[in-house]
Amino acid sequence: MRAVGRGISAVAALAIGGSVIMTAPSLAMAAPVEGNIVINEIESSGGIPGDWIEFYNQSAESVDLSGYIVKDDDDDHQYVIPAGTTVAAGGYLVLDELNGSEGHFDFGLGNGDSVRLFAPDGTTLVTEQTYPGHASTTYGLNSAGEFVETAVPSKGTMNNFTGIVINEVNYDDAFSGSPDAVELYNAGSASVAIGGWSLHDDKDRPGEGDIPAGTELAPGEYFVMTGDDVDFTFGLGKGDQVRLKDASGNVVEAMAYENTSPTMIFARCPDGIGTWQHATELTLGAANNCDPLETAEAALVLNEIDSGPADWLEFFNPGGEALDISGYEIRDNADDHRWRFPAGSSIQAGEYLLVEASTMGLIYNDQTQGWDENTFEAAIGIGSGDSIRVYDAEGTLIQEHSWTEHAAIDGDAALATLGRCPDATGEFALAHPTPGAANECVTPAVAINEIESNGGTPGDWVEIINIGDTPVDISGWTVMDNDPIGHANDVTPLEQGTILEPGALFVFEELRDFDFGLGNGDTATVRDAAGQTVDEHVYDAHAAGTLSRCPDGTGEFVDTEVSTKGQLNACGNPVVLNEVESSDADGGDDWIELYNPRLEEALDVSGLVIRDNDDSHSYEIPAGTSIAAGEYLVITESEFGFGLGGNDSVRIFEGENIVEETSWSGHAEHTWGRCPSATGNFAATSAATPGALNSCPGIPAVEAWTGADEVTVLDPEAMFLEDSSGLDFHDGSLWAVDNGTGMIWKLDAALDGSVSFAEGWEDGKRVRFQKDAADASAAGPDAEGITLDGSGIVYLAVERDNSAKGVNFNTVLAVDPTKAGPDIVADSEWDLTESLPSVSANMGIEAIEWVPNSVVEGAIVDANTGSPFDASVYPDAAAGGVFFVALEDNGHVYAYVLNEDGSAVQIADLDPKIGGAMGLDYDSVLGVLWVEADDGYNGRLAQLTFNGTSEPEIVHIDRPASMPNLNNEGFATSPAEYCVDGQRPAWWFADGETPAALRTAPLDCVVEDDDEANAGDDANGDDSASGDDSASGDDNGTATAGGNGSDTGDDAAEDGKSHDGKPNADDKGGLAQTGAEGLTWILIAGGVLIAAGLVLFFVRRKGNVTDASADE
């Protein structure tokens, strides 16, 4: 890539050296000036260092401008271009206004002026440009030949009319430890759509560096493109070009460089408008730094050692000046083996100096006590187990390194040396031989083996494996995603002494080792203690299971259905070993239980081999054996033919490979099984459940969805954006929020669950932080959940600011949705971050639900008082209710009182025992708080029934059988007036789906008791659809309609239907007023109470149902 055109090289010389006239050797044939040289750009006000004029040679040959004269509109103002000045083909010439002794012409350009170029005779006009007044930037020649105002100054480079500039280039990772990268910057005043643009080096690279569609760059914003197959697939050479093309293939920005930067980084300083300079440090995504580098002191650094087969040493001088090394001495591990640099020896700044076996110097003669001239090998033969020690001229030991055997790769010592990694600064490690050049270190035989980016426990993780045959010290190693700048401070290096043995696995855990989440399309990079990349994997989207190498350590990454964190990958059959009985209490057979994790198809397990810890005990599953989708297969001791011991194992083989295994010490009291069932680690269960979901201590049994299995997609054509999240139902409308933008929508909901945008809500409204009120370009809140209070105010659960995605920021925003859009600013904000457990940025609050005080009072225990919740304790509370938020990280639900002054009081911490909580909904019909999990926990739901204690009753519910296992992050139920034929709609909202983000399915209005249940045993009294008259008749605290004893006077839900299929709150049928209304209502009330008593005998809330089958 070093074959850079002559003109482009001149550009680089200008940009790095400052404002100078560029000269090039004269060619035998020079093109004429006329028609080839144009006035390309003019700076008349505010330039650096002052006014300047840029000429461009548009011909294919150099042009000699010696003696040509430059004037403005005053003939008395003239500047003669010096003899010998040529402009290379495609090159630029910049003339600066004289500033002291620096610059060229001694006149300024006015506010409305001309620039004219004359032949040496002073009268023949070659070309001119006139401009009407000072530009806010500069004036430049566009592709149509018009002289117009530019978007940003582009002194010495091609004119820029978009505002998008190449701002920083990292072309070698030797200094920064980071891959090649190019930073773009919008130096203009308007956002620019750069989707479809592309990056290239000195060659056209179609498809190798395309910017994703839809990408926009706001003013003052950076956009970083990373090499190593992340954003572009080609490498940047030590002397290359970087070119940016628009979607039509036109070059809109370009720069060229030579390998002159000591940091291997070039940057514009100041950002966007400055000239290209050697950068001091890599600042991708942030302001550039071109401060002069601190010059290191001159030193003799032992940098590389070859102990065989060719003995040589390499030294390096990192300083800014030469170092006299006369009399410096080298010894091996014996004090009588001594070799000195002779008088007059020196090492230049930045020089690599070799001492080879034949290098002449002075060797110590222990017989004469003197120094004789001789070769290095005459004094020292570098051994397989040896040392090299270096002394200065005063005899002081300044450095040394020892080893126990020759460096070798695959047993070949000729292929390896010991070198500092990184070059010149790091510790010694195995390296490829590079005598006289920067070290090329051998990457440790460690590979990324498995990646969990969505739904892991407790969060995301990256697993590595040692595929070599020697231990690897991984002390100080870190893991990184595709934002190495933004997350630079979000990693914790591994402790000293962390060793990875051959074949061993190690897992980097979110929250412990890194504080960011891995995204839906991201990069996982493992770095050593010096920041060098050991292994890296780029993926396009979350895996359905995990991303695993198959075979382990060496294979390609595939999406495996079964997570095997800290274990060898489940590369073969995805069958799950789920439960083991090794000592039946009733003396029955031992047995093992297998589970099919596929939820839509059967799994063939024919030919799998089952063994315990004795290879002679072996059983092959017969041909034709399969497990139905989501079902179990139990194999007994009578079938597999051997018993399981108290200290034993079960291993399942596919061919020679183990696909599942578990070991235990001592018989379990019940069984040994995965908790949670199918997905968790093995532990002692609370009961044997052959052929069914495991019974785990503290985890409720799972019941079937209580409604018809009729799942309907409501948006077969896209209605929402890509980051669908929370849902809430309020007053006949379904509300939805998008977490990527903070956009909210209001939808009219019909009795059958179908929805349509409410009038004026087709485009939604974007909610903004108060701090961003004046900044429409701000990224906005990562709003995960939505709820409305009784008055219709919207509250959003926010887990971070999208402009700082690496920082957790658990916040509640309140906003009046009736305000005019498209953007609406939060009216109130509550920061809950410090009151919640410390979590990674993307594992914060995912949902919020407002529940009126009339429901919560006396129903939960206030942790601050130790007594049942009493709203009067909090006179400054907002909204007349309690706000429940769900934390994804631990799956807990936290109850808050939000005060009018922006303070918040946490009153309860509730564990629904569901894993990761993603959605919340208070169901006024059943009197329960629903908690929703996503696909990481199979879409399970929990019902919490408040019972006046600190531990509500918990029931777990499966999603509808035909509901796909989606990343659902929103859940809402409808109130009693939506009941038709005993069922009402519930809704789910899936993140990452467009279309088909919103689904509905029927949910029972009431749940019939079994024969053994106590119909009247309800700690909350009866406020379900069977006849309560509480203020919480729907899930927002408003009175219900539908003949349930509410104060609407509506005797039947059917009578209250509007013509569009929605309940009509204004259609209030009832008795005519005759003067006897009081007696009439007394009689009616009496009848209602009698009816309610009868209903209570047969009906109770779902939260108290006891499944008789679970008791057997």
Automatic annotation (TrEMBL):
The chain crosses the membrane at residues 1078-1099. Residues 1011-1070 are annotated as: Disordered. SUPFAM superfamilies: 3-carboxy-cis,cis-mucoante lactonizing enzyme, Lamin A/C globular tail domain. PROSITE patterns: LTD. It comes from the Bacteria. Residues 1-30 form the signal peptide. Residues 25-133, 146-259, 294-410, 434-541, 562-674 form the LTD domain. Residues 1011-1021 have a biased composition (Acidic residues). NCBIfam families: LPXTG_anchor. This is LPXTG cell wall anchor domain-containing protein. The lineage of its organism: Bacteria, Bacillati, Actinomycetota, Actinomycetes, Micrococcales.
